[in-house]
What does this fold into?
Amino acid sequence: MLNVLADFVGELRAAGLPVSMSEHVDAARAMRVIDLGDRTALRDSLAATLVKDGDHLPAFYTAFDVFFATRVATPPSDATPDGEAPDGDAGSPGSGQSQGDGGGASAPLSADQLADLLYRALRDGDSTALNRGARAAVARYAGMEPGRPVGGTYYLYRTLRSLELERLEARLTDERSAEDDQLAKRLARDEARARIENLKRAVERAIRERLVEDRGSTALAKSVRKPLPEDLDVMHANREELAQLERALRPLSRKLATRLARRRRRRRRGPVDLRHTVRRSLSTGGVPLDLRFKPPRPAKPEIVVIADVSGSVASFARFTLHLVHAISSQFSKVRSFVFVDGLDEVTDYFDGVDDPAVAVARINAEADVVAFDGHSDYGRALLNFHERFANDITRRTTILILGDGRNNYHQAHADVVADLRRRARNVFWLNPEPASYWNSGDSIIDQYAPYCDRVVECRTLRQLEAFVGELS
Amino acid sequence: MTSLDPRQELAKRLGLEHLPPVHFESAGDVRARLAKHEYLSDEAIASVAFLADRLAKPVLVEGPAGTGKTALAKAVADAVGARLVRLQCYEGLDESKALYEWNYRKQLLRIQAGRSEDQAQESWSELEEDIFSDEFLLTRPLLEAISATDPVVLLIDEVDRVELETEALLLEILSEYQVSIPELGTIRAQQIPMVFLTSNNTRELSEALKRRCLYLYIGYPDVQRERDIILARVPGISTALAEQIAEVVRSLRTLDLKKAPSVSETLDWARTLVILGREEIGAEEAVATLHILLKYQSDIERATKEILGRTVSLA
It folds into this structure.
């Protein structure tokens, strides 16, 4: 068991969770005092000792399901006929009928039978029957081929598609609410959704179990490993991941603001205030025991953000604008501009809005950023910015340019950036593409790079947070 | 490999004569006894509380506001029949408020009293020994919990509010169950207290602190558990109504609200409906009492529109 634990800890570390030596020891100790046959207790105990951040729990559960699927749970259905016996004992209404064919995946239920079994399991909230149904569904629909190095998302998709979840949901909803009341309907729908969600999880579990059997947990863990929200690649995130990022961003910006404010307060020390020190020294007979300092000049920078919001990098720009404005109290002024091939100032959108996400949503809908064909044109946008706003740039301004530098073969106008840099304190370029892709295709980041203080690769929230933290 | 049981090991380090008895038999025992004190736990909560007892480690509890983090510590204290010692954290909390402070007024009095009695022979070293003794020590919650001889549960509430430097104060207590006072030496715990820390996650706690604790995340409960909580905490409510309330609240939590309703707000709502004598929630009651669950006007408007399919009338 200790070896399994060591492997498991190794997997967690590989997934990016910081697990220290002493936490590993705690987990081992915890395993000595709990009932190892109880899978839930094992999971909760390991979570309590190994994971110290709520955001990391999903990654933990994924790894746990893979590692402790077959070893702790009852052996999966097709090994021995006994494998199903504990399930049957739990006493579900349909158990008598399905016991006979539950013995192996090779004796499948008909499609209608299966649909009916699942429907009844969902309606009655019978988890044993649900798990059995999920296994049968996977056997029937997933079409799993042994030895393929996949994580199972494809199998999940295939199984769920065949199960026709919308119909199932509608059936469950109708079952509950006959009345024509909006509230009752809504409640019935949410209840049905929650149950369908259970089914999805059961199917996912069933697929995992079979994959583990096929390829062993260590290999599988690698392919199902989910990156932590702060390590997700912003540019290639799918919709669900974007929602995850959105959720992660709010606490992240709040934490960043607290940290920066603390740092500023702690640094509160200007040069020695001689007058004050001498006056204080009178009480100690003229010996300056107690040095007094002048209050510091708050050297808060002014920030100007110029963001490309064309399709490919839009989500990155959104996150950065959100983050910068969320901590705007740490800067003396923040101005934001967005462009595609035209440029528009969007600073006002953030005024008097307590949630930057609202403002960011408005930018997408309202900002006037397309002048011609709607393909990014960095040269034109920067030229436009220079014409209209160059005089507002002072020695206290830090300029952030966000974008991948993919200029669609337009003119670069890099001299504009050179002039901006002469006027500003710093010019930074944040590029959401991996550094290895820079200057390939129509990316002309190298033409701008000589005039920027730094070009930073910013693919994940973690990198973004680190960069913004350095700014103030 | 002679690995001691963590409790024995700690007891030995603390120099306790006999090993204090464990509080809980099993995770199931935790659940049953917490339930007796009207705290309905789930498996994760019970497991972690059980481990905290067996491994003699503090528990760091995180989660959204109003999900029963503080209530857990209180319920555990009640269940094991211990006194709850509570340290409420805030920005600016320091050693003298959290650990101990010398009662310097009393010390001054003592010195002056010594003089007026005109006993010049009282030597300085005697006096010094005298004024730095227990008598002149004001104990604050942490020291109180450590030096208590009766069983205590220590609750360090909202630990994320203190500065990083102050957090370091806690480390000695959390890992060694002792407090070092320069003038007195080290004060070790007389028993093994259970320690709970709560955090609303407004900032990242230090690695050192997290490493010393077990971690428990308490999120919003599922419908069944929330229903049971309502049944346990709101007298005179029917099961049907409790279930309906739990379902409405779940639906509300799926909306993108500024502040999702917490468990304590759910309980307030349930009590209100009972007082109003309702047996079920219709759209009318829901609209009239939604402000108990939701605290922002924009949230109320949104919920009314999406769940009840109406617009808020400003009448």
User: Anything to note?
Assistant: Chain B is about 50% helix and 15% strand. The longest helix of chain B spans residues 239-254. Chain B has three domains: 6-99+140-217, 101-131, 223-307. Chain B touches chain A through 48 residues (CB under 8 Å).
